[in-house]
Predict the 3D structure of the following.
Amino acid sequence: MRFLVDENLPRRMAAALVTLGHEAEHCTHVVGRSADDGAIWRHAMAVGAIIVTKDDDYLAFLAGTPPFTPVVWLRIGNCSRAEAIERVVSNLDTIATAVEAGRLLIEL
């Protein structure tokens, strides 16, 4: 799978996903710091990436006009960076199953 990790999550998350054999980038490396959500969405669409975020702003894009890209929405409130990474890493099978089933919003 290919992931685009949002700015509100640690850069190490992208590195952890790469270590596990996935393609992953942190948005600050590809669209810049403080990029607006639209730029991040467009980049994810262009490269076929799944957005990983703690930001509910992406829900508005999923309510808009297709095409869409899947969004993994971490709903864990305040947590350590390590906990955020672990939440995604430990749910990779769940994410893969949801994406294969055509789900666009995967809540963790």
In short: The radius of gyration is 13 Å. The CA atoms of residues 23 and 29 lie 14 Å apart.
